[in-house]
Amino acid sequence: MKIDLNLFIVFDAIYCEGNITKAALALNLSQPAVSHSLGKLRNYFDDPLFVRQGNQMRPTAVANNVIADVREALHQLQVCLVQSRQFEPLTSRKHFTLSLHGSVEASYLPLLMTRLHKESPYTKLKSLKRVHRNELEIKLASGDIDLAIDTLLPVSENIMHTQLEEDQLVVVARQGHPALITPLSLDKYLGQDHVLVSSRSTGPGIEDFELARLGVHREIGLRCQHLFAACQVIAGSDMLLTLPKTAAQMYSNLLGLIISPLPVKLPKIDVHLYWHVNVDLDPANKWLRNQMMMTAASKQA
After folding, report:
1. Which of 23, 83, 173, 225 is the right S-S partner for 14, CB 3.0 to 4.6 Å?
2. Alpha carbon distances (Å) from 138 to 44, 131, 133, 141, 180
């Protein structure tokens, strides 16, 4: 059932003033207009809501029961309207949703959450599994996600983006790995068993695309979804893992892995921040984008 929200503003005014004439003056409306609105509310609630006692309109039990909820709803609507024009980080309780490439989630989220706890303590954040590039525009346009961090992707003019950082692929292995006693050559690299981390169930990784351009191929012994799991496998085996240097440095510190340059020159990885053109001027989204860019800068400091 549809109802005009302005009726609840009239309801609150009558409750507060206790008089239809005074409510009309407070709302800058005519007395008949206020009476007409009250009539609609009475039909909606199937209750008189206010009964006349002398010059006063006394609330019924139903009116007393709903006034707190009505005022809370009007307050939340007012907050929503204000926040559509401005964003107050210290008091905002906004929920943001991100889509992060698996290779950057572990390095971005700790730094980002440290910033948010300080700058916007009531803000909530949700990090989702990486959105497939074919769905990126739809998810950003619908508001299912507010921002995405991924490699450089082909996108339409409706999707805006900026580069956060530039990374490069390296190889990680366990301490004492026989293939890394001496500098890792391409032949030795291709002769090892490899772990491939991908959110997709099939298909090559970025490095495999580039190796194929050179006419070479590596053997994938394990395909898994998460970098941390892959690094744990590497720590206890003679398999190799190829991943961005930023992530490699973090996991090598945690698990005692060694890092080796990739024995073939591949293009660097551009990490970009994506958002929809519809929220380009939105204060909340703009604020979060700035937080992401400052987080990226602090990672490289």
Report:
1. 23
2. 39, 10, 10, 5, 45
